[in-house]
Design goal:
The chain is α/β, with parallel strands linked by helices. The protein has ten helices and twelve strands. It has an eight-stranded mixed beta sheet, with helices on both faces. Strands 2-1-4-5 form a four-stranded antiparallel beta sheet. The protein is globular. Bound molecules: adenosine-5'-triphosphate and magnesium ion (MG).
Length: 342
């Protein structure tokens, strides 16, 4: 549908600016607030019609918190979330309702995210009934159409979630999300719980749906193989911040942030005969309760210099549409290998 329009000219579906989500840390019998978990600490990105933005990063870097905050399942601490031009970041629950239709979420675990007591047909009809979108024969017809759209037989509507395989359950979750004709789907690790053989089928279904319906996807994953398969743009997160964002080919072809370089080096290569210099990450991810000053990554970065320990690098456009938060990557390059300081 939207394939012929260049990405940069398409309508913006989601624009997130300066998003923060801090969770209070309580201690003691009086449950006093003794600190904050800086789970998401100033994240900005844009997703256009028909575009997939993948958020990638190690466990605990804040990916799911971004996904849930964008959906307003969590209240943002700061920042704006514009969905089709409307800032929903501080809308009241009643005003938010009208906008909920435009954004739907698909969760990682198709086992726990579907109500086991409802039939598959009832699961998909729930959002249609909630938003008064269809009743009677039109409802039955819409459900059959949605089942077919996601590769399930319409007869499956009478079955219960436990009668489906993992892949089929995830198809059901996708049908439920599609029911209300959203323009944005937020998918948090939607294939991570599935067998590898089933993962590709579900990813390809998401890609087909996007091509046909012009959907925008915010796709959260820690799996670089999945991200490379589905992402138009990739944003790499580290301790609550985006450290690099670029088109798929640029990010995988020319990673410029030392953390991205390390992530790619740690991922298995499809061709084991290819040798790649391994940049092994030193130490653990620091706690988001006390993120390191300056560049959050400096404690594990083999290239860190004094400035990295005190000054936060801004996310800067160092090459066309390739944004990096690193003092060692000046705008315009050069972009050769960095020199190690340890
Ligand atoms: N409700 C909460 N209260 C306090 N801290 C939280 C809460 N939810 C998440 N966190 C913390 O926020 C940080 C980010 O968590 P988040 O779940 O967003 O990470 P993630 O990138 O999705 O990780 P994973 O890959 O393991 O799913 C973690 O340190 C986590 O412990
Ligand atoms: Mg998560």
């Amino acid at each position: 549908m939207t394939n012929s329009i260049p990405m940069s000219e398409r309508e913006t579906v989601l624009q997130v600016k300066g998003l923060k989500k801090h969770f209070p840390v309580h201690r003691g019998v009086l449950s006093r607030v003794v600190g904050q978990v800086y789970a998401v600490d100033g994240v900005s990105f844009t997703i256009r019609q028909g575009e997939t933005l993948c958020l990638v990063g190690e466990s605990g870097c804040g990916k799911s918190t971004v996904a849930k905050t964008v959906m307003r399942l969590l209240e943002p601490t700061a920042g704006t979330i514009e969905v089709n031009g409307v800032d929903i970041s501080d809308l009241s629950e009643s005003k938010l309702r009208a906008h909920r239709r435009q954004m739907q979420i698909v969760f990682q675990d198709p086992y726990s995210s579907l109500n086991p007591r409802l039939s598959a047909g009832a699961i998909v009809s729930e959002p249609l009934t909630n938003f008064d979108l269809a009743t009677g024969a039109a409802l039955a017809e819409r459900i059959a159409e949605l089942f077919e759209r996601v590769g399930l037989r319409p007869e499956a509507a009478a079955k219960y979630p436990h009668e489906f395989s993992g892949g089929q359950r995830q198809r059901l979750g996708i049908a439920r999300a599609l029911a209300v004709n959203p323009s944005l789907i937020v998918a948090d690790e939607p294939v991570s719980a599935l067998d590898v053989s089933v993962q590709a089928q579900v990813l390809n279904l998401l890609i087909d749906l996007q091509e046909d319906l012009g959907l925008a996807y915010l796709f959260v994953s820690h799996d670089l193989g999945v991200v490379e398969h589905i992402g138009h743009r990739i944003a790499v997160m580290y301790l609550g911040r985006i450290v690099e964002t670029a088109d798929n080919a640029d990010l995988f072809g020319t990673p410029l942030h030392p953390y991205t370089e390390a992530l790619l080096a740690a991922a298995p290569l499809p061709d084991p005969t290819i040798k790649r210099e391994r940049l092994i990450l030193q130490g653990d991810v620091p706690s988001p309760v006390r993120p390191p000053p300056g560049c959050h990554f400096h404690t594990r970065c083999p290239y860190a210099v004094d400035r990295c320990r005190s000054e936060t690098p801004p996310l800067a456009e160092v090459a066309p549409d390739h944004w990096v938060a690193c003092h060692l990557r000046p705008v315009g390059g050069p972009f050769g290998p960095l020199s190690r300081t340890i």
